[in-house]
Amino acid sequence: MNATDVVETLTIARWDGPVPVATQRRALAALEAGRVLFFPALAFHPAPDERALLSPAMLDNTRKNISLDPATGRLGGTALTGAERHRLAAMMTRFAAAATGFVRALAPAYAPDLEPARTSFRPAEIDDRPASPRHDDRRLHVDAFPTRPLHGRRILRLFSNIAPDGAARHWRVGEPFADFAGAFVPRLRPALPGSAALLAALGLTKGQRSAYDEIMLRLHDAAKRDGHYQRYAPQVALELPAGSSWLVFTDLVLHAAVKGHTALEQTFHLPLSAMAEPERAPLRVLERLTGRALA
Ligand code: SIN
Ligand code: FE
Fold first, then answer.
1. Tens digits of per-residue pLDDT, 283-295?
2. 127-160 burial string, b = 16+ CB within 10 Å, else e?
3. Does domain 3-290 have CATH number 1.20.140?
4. Which of 58, 150, 226, 272 would disulfide-bridge 278, Cβ 3.0–4.6 Å?
């Protein structure tokens, strides 16, 4: 495996489009096939009065990221108050709007069904954060949310490296999802009967997990816990420079963020029906593997 297998580079430098139709087609095909769309010239520029915010001191030490929930406008993970809190929320809101406009222009077929979810600001150095294997994003994994069941809907994320000192963000990208799932699914322990209903009744999940959500969470944990897999599985190192952006289905693409600091990220959810090739979605791959409906 080498970088050209896992990355598609696009020279777009504007957030607000328009994107040529041939580029849209290339982008959609690469994205759904599980490649990272890399935009080396798509830079998000903090305003001069926002530069003081680009520091891990903005974190409240309970979490590694600061997040903005678009549904409530709530900012979590920071102890900032007053004008500084307002300034940080404004920067993240501007990024969310730029990211949303960009994805709509790049993938007009997704636009009607694209659901902007959380925006995150990631000021801390990744490599300074010792974590339990399950919480350690330096290990290869696919994304799955413990508290927000998706029932097969996709997780699409746009990242921008805004490191003021020019530090690159270092990722590793793993093998195709079908290969990974084919090896791991037969080894997964089944969920306890009734556990999804219980978690929902206790208010620990937002609605009830489907079998799909259970399997994705187990795949996330099993990959991270498997030291042999982490070390020997096929993987490619990527250096994502300051001033660049990248877009990736993180439920499909095995990824590890190993080093770097100061990034912004926008999450989107997308129903399978919006995809050009829904059979490439993790839900459909897992249904083929297990021979049953999972959502
Ligand atoms: C992750 O989704 O695993 C983290 C990505 C990053 O912060 O670069
Ligand atoms: Fe992740």
1. 999 999 999 999 9
2. eeeeeeeeebbbbbbbbbbeebbbbbbbbbbbbb
3. no
4. 272
